[in-house]
Amino acid sequence: MHILLVHQAFAALGEPGGTRHAELANYLAQRGHKVTIIASPVSYLTGSTPPSGYSSSLENKVVIHRAYTYPALHKSFVHRVFSFFSFMVSSFAIGLRVKEVDLVWGTSPPIFQGLTAWALARLNRAIFLFEVRDLWPAFAIGVGVLRNPILIRLSEWLERFLYRHADLVLVNSPGFSEHVQASGAHRVELVPNGADPRMFDPQADGVDFRKAHGLQHGFIALYAGAHGMSNDLGVVLAAADLLQDRPEISFVFLGDGKDKPALQTKALEMNLKNVHFLSPVAKASMGAALAAANACVAILKPISLYATVYPNKVFDYMAAGRPVLLAIDGVIRTVVEDAQAGIFIPPGDPQALAQAVRWLADHPQEAQEMGRNGRRVVEGKFDRAMWAERLALIFESLKP
């Protein structure tokens, strides 16, 4: 089967960002399928343009084409829209040159590339699979990014159109299923986020990473990922302020995003000596970074819709054998609490976060046991290879 994936935010294993699709594509290729990916040359996490050009290939004959994308991704919402539409058009032009396609895989967000995937599927008389990674535009409306009533109506129309015209809607969280079915999806399958436990060594101490960044001593609470509006990282800064009486406790922000400069400025204004900002690392190096942490933070704004999400970072934290400081309610809370893999903190509550960090620092044996619990659950229920096989079986059951 020839599978065409249209994905603006695609990140290879050697790039920073979520690599779910790189890992799944490699597995599909190992199984004998041909996978072509149309992606942006502009990093969705950092907004920067790597010097690698427009076409490259991964191992296992997975081919990537880089489509022109307006580069000012992180300047403002308007610039982001320009970025989305530029990729929608340029990816369609490249997709027209990809021949003998059996299945076109669109993914959202950004939702606009879903329209490209639908059009390419219809032109190729191929299967159209639409993957929902976030409930967009509902999330954008919830955080206040999308406010214009006309744009809201158009976005919701496009969402329903794609659900109704997809041969299959794929979701990465069980919390999304009800929404997409109510919005017109005919067939919905779950392939949840997870992690490849082979990328992480829970016994590693991360000493080299610590030395490289001047973090040799003490307890580290690490946040890894996007620094954006939804991530509510001001709450983490407020928690760090409450813990300045514990100089052995540090907070590390690893990643990039639109809000990072403002967060760095705020940390300076608050005179937070216990906060460190680090540049993002490639997924292949994430194991070393997480090994340096004693606990890891996952946080989103206190919006009810976020109760539906399965954040990738939580499964990475668990695979690395680190206790999760979880400031997200809902379905992911159930995973962490059932596994006894961390501590739930009410979203938006810096005092509760500070208290949880303090407790883990004072109870290292219990923290390590939480980490071991999380690792076991990833190995048993959320191993990426296991779900990649499930995805391959779903693809192979579909007929063009």
How does this model look, in words?
This protein has 400 residues and is of the alpha/beta class. It has 2 domains: 208 residues, Rossmann fold (3-Layer(aba) Sandwich); 185 residues, Glycogen Phosphorylase B (Rossmann fold). The chain contains 15 helices and 14 strands. The strands form 2 sheets. Strands 3-4-2-1-5-6-7-8 form an 8-stranded mixed beta sheet, with helices on both faces. Helix 11 links the parallel strand 12 and strand 13. Helix 1 crosses helix 15, helix 8 crosses helix 13 and helix 11 packs across helix 14. The chain is globular, with a radius of gyration of 21 Å. The relative contact order is 0.12.
Helix content: 40-55%
User: Could you state the CATH homologous superfamily of the largest domain?
Assistant: Glycogen Phosphorylase B
Shape: globular
Task: State the end-to-end CA separation.
Answer: 10 Å
Which architecture of the largest domain per CATH?
3-Layer(aba) Sandwich
Q: What class do helices, strands and sheet pairing give?
A: alpha/beta
Brief write-up:
With 400 residues, the protein is α/β, with parallel strands linked by helices. The chain has 15 helices and 14 strands.
Topology:
Elements: E1 2-6, H1 20-30, E2 34-39, E3 55-57, E4 62-66, H2 77-95, E5 103-108, H3 112-124, E6 127-132, H4 138-142, H5 149-165, E7 168-171, H6 177-182, E8 188-190, H7 207-212, E9 219-226, H8 233-242, E10 249-256, H9 260-269, E11 275-278, H10 286-291, E12 295-299, H11 312-319, E13 324-327, H12 331-339, E14 342-344, H13 350-362, H14 364-381, H15 384-397
Helix pairs in contact: 1-15, 2-3, 8-13, 11-14
